[in-house]
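Give me the 3D structure for D-alanyl-D-alanine carboxypeptidase DacD.
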Amino acid sequence: MPASQKTARRPLLVTSATLLSLSLSSLTLTAAPAFAAKPSPSSSASPSATPPATMSTVGGEQLGRPGTQAALGSDAPVLPKGISARSWIVADAESGDVLAAHNAHWRLAPASTLKMLFADTLLPKFNKDDEHKVVPADLAGIGAGSSMVGIKEDEKYTVHDLWLGVFLRSGNDAVHVLSAMNGGVKQTVADMNEHAEELQALDTHAVSPDGYDAKGQVSSAYDLTLFARSGLQKKDFREYCSTVRAKFPGETKKGKNGKKSRSSFEIQNTNRLLTGDSGLDSYQGIAGVKNGNTTNAGATFTGVAERDGRVLLVTVMHPEKNEHNQVYKETASLLDWGFKASGKVTPVGELVPPKSAETSGGSAEPTAGPGTTAPTSASGGAGGKSVAASASGGGGGIGIALGIMGGVLVLVAGAVFLVNRKWPLRGRK
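Predicted structure for D-alanyl-D-alanine carboxypeptidase DacD (429 residues):
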């Protein structure tokens, strides 16, 4: 944006069609009612490349408008060029302020980013040391071509093993086993939809627990960001989504001497901003959260990163550019912009708190449960060890401190950043 179009003390509201100058005093954010009616799921997650003329206004009236929404101060950096995603959002993870957004409430296919809702719903339900022996029924109904971590029938896995499979390899087999432990896929999907409503994620309708393409299954960049923000208040969630690699239990086999033994193999996180990839460096300060890719959804991603004490959440859905790692490149560009723009823009909305936080006066604490008592390291159930992201380079975000134990990087207990335990009140200034 040319400098001549900026006016001192007058932010710019950027829309898809026009640039409108508004004074700071006239810019108001109107939060949607906490109990707004939930729209019916569409038969197709993305029927066209054109966003609806009207969308949900949860989090503020501007977030319901199509196109790009940003209120730039006179010294704010311009939004990055080349962002092709159908929908995206940049938000402060602590305050909940939405710094900029593009079709934030467009209901699109979420792919495996929906696993954030799955994890946020089920993590508190199980003790991570519990063991489960897999039976054929546990793996029934997994979609063709699904991403898998390699779970085998008649083998035992700890809950911890299964969560490593969900977060690192995006394993639909691990999701289905945990769903079976929760009473089945139908019960788990019902629990997920109930939890989404509690989080005021009203664009979301889950049909499958793993994000596999299903008729009527939708979410939005806004809702996915709510799931990430809620999940990051759970210690186990933070540790799993920041783990780069870990050992996973293999098959039990009988050796030549007749003795049975069980090997393990290494799995690596599929989040390329965490691990890096050919032509893509790991992002400095990244600490998760979840990527996804299906035929219907294309690429989707939610990432969280910390820089100079500020924590940002960015969600990108359905980039139109069909280039390798495009969803990560666009996320990195938006994160870079967000860190430079912090304090120089007027928020265009907010990430709303859960219903229970509002009714309890905004001081709700994350629910303690069996899944929240994490050990100091995310070690595999078969004696494996995991490696967390480096604090000095990619993956050092959210205050995740590292120590060295036996030559292996491990998370230091008690040194993990907590994302705003007191939920912000709606309508605050």
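The radius of gyration is 21 Å. Let me know if you want a second pass.
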